[in-house]
Amino acid sequence: MIAWCVTAAGAQRPPNILFLHADQHNARVMGCAGHPDVKTPTLDRLAATGVLFQRAYCQAGICTPSRTSLMTSLYPRTTGVLWNSAQDNGQVHVGVRIEPMAAWFKSHGYRTAAFGRRHLADAADVGWTRTGSTYDRRSDESYQDWLRETGRYDAFKNDSDFKNMELNSHVTQLPAEATEEAWMARKTTAFIRQAAQDGQPFFCWVPFLHPHHPYTPLPQFHRLYDPAKLTLPANLHEPLENLPPFLRGFRSGENNPWCLGRAAKDDSVFRRFLACYYGCVSQVDDSIGQILRSLEESGQLDNTIILYTADHGDFAAYHGLAEKFPWAHNMYEEILRVPFIVSWPARLRKGDVRQDLVEETDIYPTLLELTGVEAPKDYAMVGRSLAPTLTRGEAAGRRYAFSENSVMATVIGERYKLGVFLVEQPGNYPDMLFDRIADPLEVHNLCGRPEAAAVEKELRGVLAAWMARTPAVEVKTLPKMPGNKPAVRKKPLP
Q: Where are the beta strands (DSSP E) in 168-300?
């Protein structure tokens, strides 16, 4: 039983929830994850006062499906959201019942808010008391409108001038107070301070855009990273033929913004890109620090559950790639594995680094148990509560995690990971099987290899069983793949 904060009047007040969420943050790219170059002092402190899960996986390597799955604790195949917009317009399938996290907490006495880039399917984007958006259509307040009103919109638009940006990277011309992170931090801290006065528990989601492209850090964060001194991934120059066909095409491009073919011949292009990507990570880290200070100054730190994760990762130069490129795969560790830190200094274990296999679907049931809020009745969440792990150090107990988009379904085990293509690949390119222990950089595809036949058969069976037992809607195939090639769904599904 979790002990709640006792107010001056003697009543128990449920804990607040501060849900910090990045877009496209490679799980390796944090100081607390052991990265040799990246500076994330705030996230490092958060991990030191809480629990860091090093094997957490998103349920789709692309934004809207991942976020919708996280907020509903349902797999993408159940909601029907397996793509951002090309499939069913990125919306939950008609007739599918969902109970979004924010709406559920609001119905149980929480004041809810979201400040940033929500990018959810509409049916999951409900239940907010207040919203401030840097991206979404429906919102109480708009960052981009604020930029127009204050005369900074042109500088903001310059950050999206892709044709003049190598690997979508450059240093922003926005002043520090006008960045998305600064605007979000102001809105969030004001909400937190008001919550301290009102005495109502809050659920506050803070979804940052960065380190998603365009990679446009402020000068002071870019200066933290000397491109010439950065450590490059060992598989930066992985042979092109190792990669799925559409990733090969992506990595061969010579033109901006994704000039990976040029970068393959000149490591300095990758170094400049990484200085910007890492700068964006540090910029988000600094903004989180400002938010946490307001939580502490308002006297709410001891009664607030703090969670940090991301919707998916970024290649960050691994495999000689950048971005996520979901048309080609839903497989690689750099994309599917995400940062995952939970901290509640007054109640949870501190400094625990875990290797348990967890999913982002676990967030919803975990927060329900930690707060004491009842779960929706007759609603089959697929996640499992991590509260026993967070409070008592018990093993999470999951043997397999699952992730899927329109292109590939993947099962992730303790040692091996199998990705099965759902769309036909040029040249009969095989499915993908990696041994994360013997091949942590995922450069040796074991599919079809005699020495891995038993493992492949076992994981195909696990994936087929998951597909058979998991409610699924009929979903459309993507109309086009890169290069205007038709997308042909494999039949039958594995």
A: 202-211
